[in-house]
Amino acid sequence: xxxxxxxxxxxxxxxxxxxxxxxxxxxxxxxxxxxxxxxxxxxxxxxxxxxxxxxxxxxxxxxxxxxxxxxxxxxxxxxxxxxxxxxxxxxxxxxxxxxxxxxxxxxxxxxxxxxxxxxxxxxxxxxxxxxxxxxxxxxxxxxxxxxxxxxxxxxxxxxxxxxxxxxxxxxxxxxxxxxxxxxxxxxxxxxxxxxxxxxxxxxxxxxxxxxxxxxxxxxxxxxxxxxxxxxxxxxxxxxxxxxxxxxxxxxxxxxxxxxxxxxxxxxxxxxxxxxxxxxxxxxxxxxxxxxxxxxxxxxxxxxxxxxxxxxxxxxxxxxxxxxxxxxxxxxxxxxxxxxxxxxxxxxxxxxxxxxxxxxxxxx
Length: 363
What we know:
Layout: H1 9-16, E1 27-30, E2 38-43, E3 48-54, H2 62-77, E4 88-89, E5 98-99, E6 105-110, E7 115-116, H3 124-141, H4 159-172, H5 179-190, H6 197-203, E8 210-212, E9 221-224, E10 230-233, E11 240-242, H7 244-256, H8 273-287, H9 293-297, H10 299-319, H11 332-349, H12 351-361
């Protein structure tokens, strides 16, 4: 939703007032750089909160999202873990969600104090912390009963479905596609063999289903203010049963592309091996011994798959008129797709070194 369509502050104050806060609201401001939901920081005299409008086009099952988060919060309380997740703030009627007069869905969470997000990793120490916090989450979540969690976003990481949708859109636009689009379609088609690799491993019993975060990019990891330690995971809408390889691949995609997803020169995109090794090392301190040999062998496939998947999604959204990911200009999703495909190409060039690194780190 564009900034011009955001509710005015009085409307936001009315919505915030429905939740069981500690005191009267004294301030509301936009928060974060999210591409999907609209997020606001809410302040009272003593505390901070996060008010969020859930994008029902992207997340048509908001009740399932909140049910998963309430279960996750309940179960994590029973486990001694140093990874925090935001506490859900219920409405004054005891509900996890509320709807405004136009039917939009809202929720409230605590704002974890004395934390910050990083726009990029500046040291091996920060990278290790990223891996450690994700590994700690996976290790803790491995103890949770899968049957308590529903699929809030069933198509998440269904790469074959994303590819099929792209092919459908491309067919409808025959004769009207630019050379840039044609080049991306060719690059994606050349890599179609990657799409089913992890699903095949799942079908063959070479990997297992666990509770996953679903979107562990750098923006969704909170660090202590001094940057010394990663302390929390946020943006938990996609917590559901899945493959931890997808999570790790997504984390590495986000953190190891040093130029970021919106760089101006897609051809200069590179996958940073030093950041990758530090993240894997931090992750392995928590997950070594929990992943099977077969799962470790599929990690490279995940590292190559996730940027390919995201490139497919960016290109599809561009061709459909930028209806899913929020954009600042019409060609932005096209450029983002080019960046992701350039990242895949660099990962492929470094395949041998990455496979050796994975084997060494998890040995």
